[in-house]
Known about the structure:
The protein is α/β, with parallel strands linked by helices. It has a single domain, classed as NAD(P)-binding Rossmann-like Domain (Rossmann fold), CATH 3.40.50.720. It has 7 helices and 7 strands, in the order E-H-E-H-E-H-E-H-E-H-H-E-H-E. Helix 2 links the parallel strand 2 and strand 3. The chain is globular, with a radius of gyration of 17 Å.
Amino acid sequence: xxxxxxxxxxxxxxxxxxxxxxxxxxxxxxxxxxxxxxxxxxxxxxxxxxxxxxxxxxxxxxxxxxxxxxxxxxxxxxxxxxxxxxxxxxxxxxxxxxxxxxxxxxxxxxxxxxxxxxxxxxxxxxxxxxxxxxxxxxxxxxxxxxxxxxxxxxxxxxxxxxxxxxxxxxxxxxxxxxxxxxxxxxxxxxxxxxxxxxxxxxxxxxxxxxxxxxxxxxxxxxxxxxxxxxxxxxxxxxxxxxxxx
Length: 245
């Protein structure tokens, strides 16, 4: 029997952190699969470029900061206003500051915690009522990290925020499954993007050649959404063959 694949044509997906890296790659793959996307991010110029690239009939953009609950609600409101529904949210926005527990200022540590964890919570809280009201269910696909599964030296605070995301996803799965909402945590190892460049990584790091790509992770996001509604993936950990675990 052939594997069942869900057609994403006409589905509406909101993505945070959509101006680069995994978020931008996911937007492209989802539009190619027939979905409509609403892109959230802080860089207005990049958002505008993405809408042009994807097509105004397929993509809308909201300049926002996930640390703001109101901004997350604006992202969801744009999806419903523009496309009439919300089928999925991909809380993807995140920042990484690598170094010891004492290497960064209080403000930097606070920003990382608020962006990575609070920003996920605000996005989910904004999306759930809209999904239940407009589609009677949906998907929450949280982009976390393998750092949220096993931690690592010189990333304690970052790993803590990722453990929090994984824990949140597991609890939400238990809370929302019976309401028709599937919850997945995607946990990639290092991805060759601009993420954390200047805060622990360098541009064009030679290790990128052996790491995962943004498209690899975007494919996982798209695959999860394409699963038949009777199937759910709660945790997807990803490594390249060149990365140790």
